[in-house]
Amino acid sequence: MRHAYFCGLLSTDGLTEAASVRRMGQRTMELNQVSYFINLAETLNFTAAARLSGVSQPSLTRAIRRLEDELGGPLIYRDGKNSRLTGLGHDVEAEFRRMVVAMKSVRNHSEHWAMGGHRVLDVAVAPTVGPKEFTAFFESALAEMPSIEIKLHSLQSNEDTSEVLSGKYHACIMPRETRPERKLDVHPLFWERFVLGCSANHPLAANEIVSGEDLLEFPFVDRLKCEFRDRILDHFARRDLLMRPRFRSDREDWVQRVVADGHAICILPERSATVQGLVTRPIDGFVLEREVVIATVSGSTATVEIRNIAQLATRYEWN
User: pTM to 2 decimals?
Assistant: First the structure.
């Protein structure tokens, strides 16, 4: 299949400005050819497809032939009432239908933007930030801003607030970075301590506060995605308390489930404990906190809706 057709639809990279202008008329025809061919694939009849497309049969036939010339092969076996798609025709139909869905999505977004209608906000959340504190907040924000939809993403291990600057996300909810980007507005939400996590039936759960030495008596679960993992291990190593993990995982839900179901323990932010049966206890002499923030693009470059969400978050009474 030749490259020119799909590049003509989606990009003008490498073309001069004058060449781009010359291609504009062709691009409109190519987009029409997409709908023409989809109608033909549905009806397998040139007359019926022309009627659905709102053009004459000769016009539709010429458009399909130009498309076949561009793609380098026949799309339909022309056999009267027994006309049928070729193998290439089936493949092209599938791609064209995906293109139609994408074009409708783009059109809907542009219309909503122009009319101030429904707006989707992409918000990434660090995997170590638990949902318990945010469900009530998002519920109240959506009630106050009925024209928006919030789409939550998991912030990947190789991602940071630069994804907000790139436009991939409208905002990130995460622990405060040590070197914040100057082009971002970083809004503080709440502080939380790192504490012991254990089962409600665990022997240490009976204590109001536990000692570092107590931790060595039980299997330790290592939270691989914890931003403070090295600092936690160093704290105990300096006190000759060597934590030997028996289980490691980058899945917070797995870590918490293992701890809640057995005699293993972990160290986690106090507000991130979400699994039923998991309880937290402070550790004597262990003082480590983190600040959870929401980061957005600074100034007027951020959308009005995400600025409103950030303002609501800073005013919200976090438990």
Answer: 0.61
